[in-house]
């Protein structure tokens, strides 16, 4: 797990490919109030070295108790909690909360349910969720195809993929297998949540600081409004409710 988590640390190129939209926030700009959002309820300790079965299922009771009030599918909440717990164990200096992951998951795909998609017991999201074509219009970056359509289904331009909306090049660098099926799949909520955790920690370093949290969210989506929206959802989840 540690090797998978840290494999992208040496990667310093292709930064432009990691961005999916325009940005209004820069270093030195005022950081929004309420950043970082509260961490929410503590996630119970889990065994992150489980070799068989779906590790996130260890958090079923924890997630099932909270999911109805949060309006988050139980499987998705398990995935967010597990990813945050792995981050805490493997990279304790990151201090990433499950509420931040849940906020991102809500904004990106309504927790894997966008346009009628559903989450299977193993975490697979079906039908797969794909973002807009990143052709440079409507404020998006122009990102020519990087995967020959193998992942996102578009052989001309890139599209964001899955419940956490990774673009293909970002997934190539950070994607990991979190549900022990042997495949790192952007359309699996477990894989996507843990990969997002690794990416956020790598980019933000310490997400318990305002600057670190904004750096991480800025890398995930180059938009100040995006960060504010994730903050608002994460803050609501920390209070035990949905917006």
Describe the structure.
The chain has 243 residues and is mostly helical. It has one domain (2-7, 20-238). It is 39% helix and 5% strand. The chain has eight helices and four strands, in the order ααααββββαααα. The chain has helices at residues 2-6, 60-70, 74-90, 98-109, 168-174, 189-204, 210-220, 224-238, and strands spanning 118-119, 125-126, 130-133, 159-161. Strands 1-2 form a two-stranded antiparallel ribbon. A two-stranded antiparallel sheet has the order 3-4. A hairpin with a 5-residue loop joins strand 1 and strand 2 (125-126). Helix 3 runs parallel beside helix 6, helix 4 (98-109) packs across helix 8 and helix 6 crosses helix 7. It is globular. Residues 1-27 have low confidence and may be disordered.
Quick summary:
This is Transglycosylase SLT domain-containing protein. The chain is mainly α and 243 residues long. It has helices at 2-6, 60-70, 74-90, 98-109, 168-174, 189-204, 210-220, 224-238, and strands spanning 118-119, 125-126, 130-133, 159-161.
Which short descriptors sum up this protein?
single chain, 243 residues, mainly alpha, two-stranded antiparallel ribbon, 8 helices, 4 strands
Q: Which structural class should the secondary elements be placed in? A: mainly alpha
What fraction of the residues are assigned to beta strands by DSSP? under 5%
Pick out the low-confidence regions.
1-27
* Structural domain count: 1
Strand order of the largest sheet: 1-2
